Amino acid sequence: MSGERSSDNHDVYGLMAEFDSPKRLIEVTQSAYDRGFRLMEAYTPFPVEGLDLALGYYRNKVPLTVFAGAVLGGLSGFLLQCWSAMYYYPHNIAGKPLYSWPAFIPITFETTILGGAFAAVFGMLYYNGLPRLYHPVFNVPEFVLASDDRFFLCIQSRDPLFDPKETLGFLETCGPRVISVVPY
Amino acid sequence: MSFDTDLASATAGADLQAQFDAVQKRALTAGAIGLGLSLVGGLIWPSTVLPAYLVAVLFWTGISLGSIGLTFLHHLVGGSWALPLRRPFEAGAFLIVLMAVFFAPILLGLRSIYIWTNPEAIAHNEAIRHKVEVIKFLTPSFFTIRTLAYFAIWIVAALVLNFWSRAQDGRTDDAPSRRLYVVSGPAIVLMFLSATFAAFDWGMSLDPDWYSSIYGAMFIVGELLSTLALMTVIALRLSAFEPMRRAVTPDRLNDVGNLLLAFTMLWAYMTVSQFLIIWLGNIGEEVSWYLRRTRGVWGAVSLALIVFQFFAPFLALLNRETKRKAEWVLPIALWILVMRVVELGWLVLPASSEIGVARFPWGSIPWILTSMVGVGGVWIAAFVWRLRSAPLIPLHDPRIMAALEHSGEVLV
């Protein structure tokens, strides 16, 4: 049955419901999450507080990526200085030992931040699937309003619980302005 | 998620009042025992006990000073993070009056603490002689006058904060809060300057042959960090009762955790800056301060400060999940307080010791404990007395109301 269903949904990206208010969108998203839908995405003209929680996006891998990037940046900065000061270009500066770790701290601090910042930006882009030149949601004409004053929730056909009829029925009970089928 | 700010629901209930009574009784008992022991010890071995007493006085004065500073800061920037902390801050600020009294033994025992009162040290060291005899900055009388002036400034600031904030409770127009907003900016400048000079006088002049212009900032950041940590502990303990239960939400705890993280990093930044500049300069008259604090047991203490006062809370507070849970934030805040006492001991006790002599003042350690308990017990008892004399949540504060409105919490 499930195999059949997924082949049925092959040429539909998902179902998209359009709402008037961010508050309503959060409520609908929450009830969709409570029903078990996971592969869904919300689109709003401005950041809506609490929407990330409703979507279940509370946990993501960005913090861990940033931490790893920061540690990597700090280590490489520190080791680079150790290598250049101790082996590549050993030099007597103010009579200090070649391994003068306190002098390496500012650069280590900066490369830690650099590594963390790079990991944050590029990690965020990677996990968001960006850059992306084509996205099916733009096939829905009304979607242009997502950057104006409308709030959208799109339940994707990849979701194991997705069933064209049932999901449509569920979205209809939520009182949206319009429900659109999003083609690939 | 609703939060109404009427008088009845913002005042402590009967169960909390009973708890307050119990805490006051225990704190007063502990305080009396600690102070009694310190007094007896101080009369017998003044030069061992008084520096330890100075550690405790610097700690608790720092809490009151940090409370004044953070209250002014909140009046300036607003936000709902301080909703559960404002009244504890104000009560802590008020106790600067108590700390003025507790400072008297320091002024009476200057000769047992500060080496610049010793004619022999003055004669043997040109740098000390300059500060004492030529420019006459470090003299007991001028030192006392300056100390009195600092306390005068701070007491006025604390009274203004307490009086106008409580005046706001009883009225719906925002005149008292507006006045506080206007004075907060200049007051923060004045607080920062006076606290810097106080840190120079009380802490830095322990090593009168040495100076560092970042010392004041480093000291103040340490005070702010410990203040925030103690007030977080207090708010979390109070959050078992209404109205604090509603005020301490995971979001606010997250904000406070972020502030603790920021001040931990700022403390490390100041401390490392001072060390790095002196280490790079490598001048005899500057490195003495570090030589006294990095030899023998003090070297282990220095390492412990790096690992446990910076890295431990820093790494623990990085995680967002941690900052949202009281069972994590409470031990971290307590840990920060413990490390602040260790840091103050590290700043005060090795002062003026002979360079190269790795002698650790084991004898002073128990007196740090008696003084901390003694001054702290009385401080906590007075704190509770002050805290329970007003609603535990500031009422009708326009900046808090605006922040509550923004986060969607209902207002009355």
Mean pLDDT across the residues of chain B is 90
The run of helices and strands of chain A is HEHEHHHEHE
What is the helix content of chain B? over 70%
Multimeric state of these chains? heterodimer
Strand content of chain B: under 5%
Shape of chain A: elongated
- What string, H for helix and E for strand, traces the elements of chain B in order? HHHHHHHHHHHHHHHHHHHH
Q: What is the straight-line distance between the termini of chain B?
A: 13 Å
Give the strand content of chain A.
Answer: 5-15%
- What class would the helix/strand composition of chain B place it in? mainly alpha
Number of strands of chain A: 4
DSSP helical segment count of chain A: 6
What is the CA-based Rg of chain A, rounded? 25 Å
- Helix fraction of chain A, binned, reads 40-55%
Instruction: Supply Rg of chain B.
Output: 22 Å
Instruction: Give average pLDDT of chain A, whole number.
Output: 86
Pfam families (chain A): ActD
Protein name (chain A): DUF3341 domain-containing protein
InterPro entries (chain A): ActD
Keywords (chain A): Membrane, Plasmid, Transmembrane, Transmembrane helix
